[in-house]
Design brief:
Blueprint lengths: L1 H4 L3 H19 L8 H17 L10 H14 L15 H4 L1 H9 L3 H24 L5 H13 L1 H6 L4 H18 L6 H13 L3 H21 L14 H18 L3 H18 L10 H6 L5 H29 L10 H19 L8 H26 L8 H17 L1 H6 L11 H7 L2 H8 L5 H13 L6 E3 L4 H8 L8 E3 L11 E4 L1 H4 L3 E5 L5 E5 L1 H10 L1 E5 L4 E4 L1
Parallel strand pairs: 1-2, 1-3
Antiparallel strand pairs: 3-7, 4-5, 6-7
Amino acid sequence: MVNNYGNNLLLLSTIIIMAGIILAIAFTEVIPNGAYPYLIFTMATSLIFHTTLITNYIQVQDVYGEYYIAQSVLKTHFWEYYVGDTPYNSVLSTTILPIIFHYISKVSLTWIYKIIFPTFLALIPLILYRIYTSYISPKMAFLSVVLFMGIHSFFITVPFIPKQVTAEVFLLLLLHVTFSREIEHRNFLLTVFGVSIVMSHYGTAYLVLGMLIFAKIWGYLTSSLSKSTSPKSVLSNLYIALYAIVVFGWYANMSEMISLSSVLRRVPSIVRLVASGVLFSTKYSRGASLLTKQLPLLGAIDKYLYLAIGAFSAVGLIIATIETYLKDIEKPRFDTAYIAFSVYWMLILGATILIPHFAMMNPYRLYHLSMITLSPFVMLGLQRTLKIFERFFTLNHIRVAGVILVVFVLLNTGALNEILRLPPFYSSSLNQDTALQLGGIEDKRMVYGRLITTWDVQSSMWISTFWNSSRLIYSNRWGYGSASLHSYGELPVKNIESMTPDGVIPKNNYIYIPYIFKKLRLWYTVDTLGQPKYFNATNLYTKLAVEYSIIYNNHGTQVLWS
């Protein structure tokens, strides 16, 4: 309905129904516990597909680079395990897995990325629910999973990062085996899932290695305090050593450790800035920049909800840690491995905000990964916080959590913004018309800056057919500027250059004007933190159109010749 008629009523109704389900579970016993897994999977797929199925093309996330690699493997029927300077080619989730899906399903790569990988992402909340019910009640576990799904990175950012989706599935399976005491062949499964994480995503692989090492050190430091038992297999010296060997051995051979090298190159500047007292700097920290960003009313409410979630998770984690190590409780709620993993991810979140240049992976993605273990502590922290005020009034923490989560989901999906017609508008599914009618530059770029249109694809395929490979294409090497050129045009990023706001282009080169630039007159530069800064590009477009020759025009995009 949105793609063909611009009508978002069905999607909006779906989000409202989800809100009703959350309230029904929080306030009543109408829905039995046995229905929770079904509801979780249904809600997860609805949230994810309401994003991925907009337009007939992939979106502007990491997937457009992954699509390019997969296309090259599909065309040659051969994986050149080390090509160029991109880490995308070093993982099987990008090079081999989508090709297997393609030959099994007989559908195009586009729909593998829009349907099949997102379906695997929808399985993650189910595994989370199974893990959470080992520690908290089914109702609290359900609300914890809803919190995880309600974070916008779950259904906006991560679905179009297939390598992270694949790694997360194996990470959740690893955690499930770790915390379950009923699974046979534990060591074999842990080995398979650990190796699979490494071969799926370099960023997640390194973070999991850090998690295992941290948990081992934590175990040594707290061994005299804990009365609880903890799964040993995943924290054994042999397992951690094996995992580390696989990580470094795989990426040393497959990509010469490009991703790790880029991290290590930043360490001296990070140390230098921290030593000089630079912390929580909007100039150097992507997390701090996002946290201090000025937002309209609904955006500010959403931001403070995120801050409250962070505060409740910290409170819950502190309480659980005290119960596990310091209180005389024969059987604490959480085991030591779960506490150790959660402390690690809480520190990752803090470093994302405080330490300059730390968040080299998008802060939204780090937040998403952190909430895998931290979500139950939000419920626990809220419960204990409300107990403080019991002498003044009594509130049921489940009901309070239900109300908060409804507001949280409605804000993060953009549904409440659409109903009230108040900015910020950032949903490419729900807010397309309202962003154009009522939104500013930031709203338009959030809604349309992720969408590859038919016009973008047509022009990209045209230019890839007729371009002179000795000439450069001026658009933007990162994000929207190169997305359709790189994926559907199959043009190497090295042949795409970023045009400057002054519109000066060297002679005898191509200039690519994508849909968002031509129709919405928006364009962008990339700041020192790697974030796009959009501006009104009317003057830039006029200058380019006047000074350079139009050699292709499909009324949505243009190609010029300098």
